[in-house]
Amino acid sequence: MDWLMCLRGAVDYMEEHLLEPVTPGEIGRAVHISPFYLQKGFQIITGYSLGEYMRCRRLYLAAMDLLAGEGRVIDIAYKYCYQTPESFAKAFSRFHGFPPSQVKQERGRIRMFLPFQITLSIQGGESMNFTVEKMEGFKVIGFEEVIPMDKGYELCPKLWDRLHSLYFSRLWQGGAPQTDVDRAIIENGIGMCAVCADDEGQDGGFAYMVGGRYKGGPVPEGLTVRDIPAADWAKFHSIGPMPEGLQALNTKIGAARKFIAKGNKVKITLRFRGREMAHVQTSRHILDDFAKELADVATVEKAPKLEGRSMSIVLTEKK
Questions:
Q1: Residue 5 to residue 305: CA distance in whole angstroms
Q2: Antiparallel, parallel or unpaired: β 138-148 and 298-307
Q3: pTM of whole model > 0.85?
Q4: Within a 10 A sphere around the Cβ of 186, how many other Cβ atoms?
């Protein structure tokens, strides 16, 4: 089953079960896909989590029922899976901008939310560049939490912010390690990557790790080690705002290779704003990886160096 069919099937399943409490796991099983990947794919395509979609649909249909006089507020609340009239009224007011008791007076302000029609449209001039590479197994170590699937975009950045405040800000600015956890962060490059794992056996949750490559040694309390098995990896080049934009350098490798082949130098500069400074160490690794990708045609003239809120590397033609 391809992605388009999965997403359409998920919408159909949710529409058929709007009057029942449904979990992401049940929706995933209905379309034969991991709820973790379904949730991520659905949010990327639509901008809504599965839970948000069902909530918006229920609140719109609830307004239509109240407008048609099909029951009291308490009846409509229970019909659309709210446990109390108070929680329903609060959600209704946030969604429509007025309480359910005023629906007939405010009919012109009812927020419409119709079923999604999933289609595929490809636009723009950037190709999706990727390579498939065989990699041996390795281990990662880091701070791991179980994140609800519909809260990933909210809670994952908060985990980064919390770790930045507790550890990364001090250590990445040259502070001496004071604890076993500090030493593990420095020795294993914790903060270099994030790892998602759909193996928790919990409906509606996935493991999210802020980590680095494990190089051996003691594992302090509060840190987790994961084995990543040998596999064929698809390495994608993506473009987006920071911190996602840190990966955007990979899409420029092809262009840099052409410039260097013509005898030109290439300078790559990253500029950090606000809390993007939390990702300085990640940026340094990506600049190093950029240079490695071009090692067959270029040498490093100026190594990555942090200057204020900018970090740059300069490459020149290999003689």
A1: 47
A2: unpaired
A3: no
A4: 17
Q: How far apart are CA 148 and CA 252, in angstroms?
A: 34
- Torsion 30-33-34-36 (CA) sign: negative
Q: In the numeric block, which tokens belong to residue 317?
A: 């033609």
Name residue 211's beta-bridge partners: 142, 193
| Cis amide bond preceding 85, omega within 30 | no
Q: For 194-206, how does the pLDDT look when each residue is reduced to its tens digit (9 = 90+)?
A: 888 865 555 567 8
Written as one string, the DSSP assignment of 113-129 is: -PPP-------SS----
Most confident listed range (31-35, 57-61, 130-134, 150-154): 57-61
Other C-beta atoms within 10 Å of 236: how many?
12
DSSP code of 159? H
- Cβ atoms < 10 Å from Cβ of 317: 16
Take residue 212 and report the two structure tokens written for it: 């680095």
User: Side-chain half-sphere of 125: how many Cα atoms within 13 Å?
Assistant: 0
